[in-house]
Each structure stands twice: as C-alpha cells, then as structure tokens.
Automatic annotation (TrEMBL):
Protein name: 50S ribosomal protein L24
Classification of source organism: unclassified sequences, metagenomes, ecological metagenomes
Pfam families with a match to the protein in the record: KOW (PF00467), ribosomal_L24 (PF17136)
InterPro entries: KOW, Rib_uL2_dom2, Ribosomal_uL24, Ribosomal_uL24_C, Ribosomal_uL24_CS, Ribosomal_uL24_KOW, Translation_prot_SH3-like_sf
Keyword Repeat: no
Transmembrane listed as a keyword: no
Keywords, sorted A to Z: Ribonucleoprotein, Ribosomal protein
Gene name of the encoded protein: rplX_14
GO cellular component terms attached to this protein's record: ribonucleoprotein complex; ribosome
Amino acid sequence: MTTAVKLHVKKGDTVVVLSGKDKGKQGKIVEALPKKAKVVIEGINKVKRHTKPSQSNPQGGIIVKEAAMSSSKVMLVCPACKKPTRIKKTAVAGGFARTCKKCGEVIDK
C-alpha cells in the first residue's frame, strides 16, 4: 500500500481543471483521496458505468458518475480574489494555514 500524500486541496474547495478533456472547468471537491493522490470533483470527469441488476438497483443499466482525477491536474481557486492560485503555508496561532499567493488572503479560517 502506498503512503498518503499531503494534498494542496481539500474537500469543499473550489478548483479549476488544468489539463484533460475538462480543461478550464471549475467545480467543488466532493471527495479527497490522499492515499491515491486523487480528488473527485462535482460535475467534472464524468464516466459511464454499466451495472447489472441488483437488490439495491433492480433495473440495472448505465450509471453516469464522477471519477477520481489526479490532484496535480487541479488548481485551487481563491475564495477572496476568485482567481486560480498556488498556495503558501503561513504560521498562525494554531499552526499553519493555507494562504493565496496572489492576494495574500488566508484561505483556511
């Protein structure tokens, strides 16, 4: 098993996709998977899965859902300046907080 990677984004963050078929689209992170270094983004990277009929889904059929994508393909959108940005860690009273590189605003409150 691989060790978990410290991600630059977390659940609830708004991100923009940097590469791939959904390049330029924005969405909110639904799930972060640090052990796989991947994130699941709402409405982005949709895939179709063919499912057999089961107890929970008696009809079966084709289900469309969001697939995980690499966290390196996304960039955080600053909630203050609304621009895609890198982050820096700044020391605050309780430890460290993520800060926007463009406007200097603290992202983690």
